Structure prediction request, 352 residues.
Amino acid sequence: MNSSKPLRKLNANTTSITLAHGSGGKAMRDLIEDVFVAGFANEHLSLLEDQARFELSALMSEGDRLAMTTDSYVVDPLFFLGGDIGKLAVTGTVNDLAVGGAIPRYLTCGMIIEEGLPVHDLRRIVSSMKQAADEAGVTIVTGDTKVVHRGAADKLFINTAGIGVIPNNINITADRAQVGDVVILNGYIGDHGAAIVDARGEMSLENTIESDCATLNGLISSMLDVCPDIHCMRDATRGGIATVLNEFAESSRVGITIQEDAIPVRPEVRGMCEILGLDPLYLANEGKLLAIVPADKADELINVMQQHPTGVRSAIIGKISEKPVGRVILQTTFGGERIVDMLVGEQLPRIC
Prediction:
């Protein structure tokens, strides 16, 4: 950061966000420099320009295509076991880049803050974002701050956009699944959805379920080292693994069969689902990916994935067939079969 000019500081008596912090004047500049520029601490933000600037040669040295994504986060509550809205905003955007084979590099951060949000909560969230970004090897380079009246939002909404570089030999798309391929999952499903339900405290459940919120680019990099020809890959967030598998089946015009007893679900999550009438196949995840890969590479991939912290429980959970086209079939533990449709409606609102 540019040390020749000291950063502005919030008034020592300021404990909560006011409308003045979004006015464009001194209060807003104090907030931006004290909380965001200092909190994210990098040479791009310290310039305080209206845009971040990069050397194209540095990006081009890593690949021949740019990947770009954006997402907004409105999770309720802001803090939950295993993460918070800030960590979620970074990991979600990093993962959206990484599952396409991109090397994530830069993020933006847009904050829509409700008047009255405690400043210490905002600092805590910024610190969480910084930690997640550092762990993923990405930099938050530019952003925007808006403050709205009490009641016009719910504490804090965050938008993040991300840019990454796709290496020359990588081509991962939803329409590349082939008959004979297998489906790989990197661990327990439904943890994030269950953690949010638990954090809301509406069901009086005595659980300590932790969100699986995590960046996956490190795991994916190790997977691509072993198998650059991964056919399809996505992170299973809202709508769970059921929705992602249906997207693959429809895009590739294939059938997908999954084995119920091969899909890892924590006993606490399964128990919560039974109480509330939910299906873990549709519960949100924030650190889980599904990959469709050539069968002859599956065992080697599983071995590599299980050596990574976010892939310890990786497993083959299904296979690709010619029929039924565009359908996902679950083979149950009782020996029966049922169709797994795409999620209809909203199982749990404001989950991310």
